[in-house]
Amino acid sequence: METERLRLSPIGPHCADELYRLHQDPGIARWYGDWTRAEAEARAAEIGRSWHRDGVGKWLAYHRKSGELVGRDGLSYQDVSGARRLEIGWAVREAHWGNGYATEIGLAGLTRARELRVTEVVAFTEVHNVRSRAVMERLGFTYRHDFPHRGEPFALYAISQSD
């Protein structure tokens, strides 16, 4: 899949090194923790399985002109507030913050959700992650409520889509 500035490549086991490198970025590690190479390998394998099992998964986002790794994004099914829901998420390397990449890749994820005829997509982040919350609002998500996730308070947003 391509956007105006990005090429989105599905993550699978072959992407473990790139996923590991991405999560070494200070701006991403701040929110997702320090991943080991083994964790990146396990996560890449799980994302690959989700593409086959669910028809959705995460993409690595590369700049179309330079080929530089910008971030990752995509869709996955998550247990959120006691229900299995389609979640969209993104992570952009700190050097690229403020350039609209999270919004651009978020729109690509919502397009994929519409293709799958999914009527609701959720997004969530730590309650104090104002940058991510602003992206959610730019994409048209509405704040629903806070909920506990990984032992921390997270803010849940949702968007309803119709044909």
TrEMBL record:
Recorded hits in Gene3D superfamilies, A to Z, give:
3.40.630.30
Domain N-acetyltransferase as annotated: residue spans? 6-163
Q: Say which domain of life the source belongs to.
A: Bacteria
* GO MF term set: acyltransferase activity, transferring groups other than amino-acyl groups
**Protein name per Swiss-Prot or TrEMBL:** RimJ/RimL family protein N-acetyltransferase
Organism equals Amycolatopsis echigonensis
